[in-house]
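INFO  loader      accepted 1 record
INFO  loader      residues=578
INFO  predictor   begin
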Amino acid sequence: MSSDKSYQVGGSLEYQHPTYVVRQADEQLYDGLKNGEFCYVLNSRQMGKSSLWVQTIEKLKAEGICCGVIDLTEIGTVDITAEKWYLGVIRRLVKDFDLSAKFNYRSWWKERDLLSPLQRFGDFIEDVLLVELSANMVIFIDEIDSILKINFKDDFFAFIRACYNKRVNNPAYKRLTFCLLGVATPSDLIQDKQRTPFNIGCAVELTGFTFEEAKSSLTAGLAEKVDDAERVLQQILDWTGGQPFLTQKLCKLVVEKAENSKANVEELVQRYIIENWEAQDEPEHLRTIRDRILKNEECAGRLLGLYQQVLEINGVRNPVSSEKPGFSPDEAIELQLSGLVVKKNGKLQVYNQIYQQVFNRDWIEGELAKLRPYSEAITAWLASKREDTSRLLRGEALREALQWKVGKSLSVDDYDFLDASQQFALRESEQARQILEEANREAKQLIAEAKEGTKLERAGVMALRLFESKTGEIEALLVAMEAGQALHKLVRGRRLLDYPATSPLLALQQILLFIRERNQFRGHQSSVNSVCFSPNGEYLATASDDKTAKLWDLAGNLIAEFRGHQFSVNSVCFSPNG
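INFO  predictor   done
INFO  writer      dumping tokens
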């Protein structure tokens, strides 16, 4: 084989292709299917799944095992009914198992139109396939991720599990096994863990090429171009991490583009793969990874954030545990299915140096900027080591961001930023509330003080008027004193200019200067008709229309009250001896 045809970039490699690299997965899948195990290969695109089943089928056929392949993309998923879909599957199996001469699938299908499509498919397996074929058989179902959106997928995968369970009561089912291949997680394919076939099958993991695995298949073509093919292959694997598509592509680039027999692998990688990668990504590979990460806006931010965490731990060289806080198992698997990261010894790391340079920090920030309505703010906040509170969202910007995030799975940084913005907004709101409450308290205090000041001002004026009327000097003094005491409590420590009222002070001053009345006696309910002092001048007696006589001391304290008169008391007098 000439060197320009030695390496195939993209597509399935034909059986025993000279550049096909045999991996541990080849032996694991072959042995599992030969022994009747249900097997599934769930991995990212362009990892060699199709080439794997092409090689495996030929080896199984050589053992006398019948094989059929259902490529679900050929049957279709857009606006397709369950009836047409299952009929398409049967048509494919009839052709692959060479039953056309013995079996008319169209008429057979119509005869059972009273049954559901799944029931008819089950009858086909049991009454046709297991009857007409006496040999062991394997049904490969490729591109299973293409049926994720059809509403009867759960029933289909549950049926596969049922075929396994039927082995107990019907030994014929022991001759039938399935191999599922695609880019999906088990939870994507069927939600009910009790019905899933993935807890009874054998998971086959596709890993990158190791040097020992690739050496015999990939050095032959390189040897026609370079002096030391093994050295160049090792350099290629250092860049690709053994990723099958990229390894084939870089081998082909060395053969076609190397300027001399020394082959500068790094220069070829930079020039033909990394630089301007979106434009020269043919056949498409890097764009496929990009689209897998960004395909769903609701979780793209979260995947970018998780990938950023992996990348921040220095990418290829220092893996990060998939159990790290912030990772969920499904998100870790989704990252792996994108092809960007690989899990080794329970830890995630960037798959290879090419991915690390293409999907770098700038790329992540650029894609996050397209997704986030607050990209500039979070970038500045993170750059300040999360300390610049002026970059946090407020008001309408915060409300819009919180509305935007609904239903989306975001990165840890996004959640931290939005949470910090909310907390800061709450603190600001609380501070504003406290300021408002304080202002309200002050306003209420001022209003109350103004009302009290008005009241005291009126009391002072009233005391002056009462004093000037000459009818109640003592009463005027008491009113002025009461108003003065209330004013003293109200203005304690203030300047006179800040007093809310001054008339009580003026009233007290005027009354104290000009008062002639010394005391008042209060107690009678009507007019006082007579007053008499005791001989010693220490007591005072009064008589009133209220039918009483009263005895007082000179301080105005009531000592005794004399009741008994039926009418007004007109006169009162002390005895000579007092």
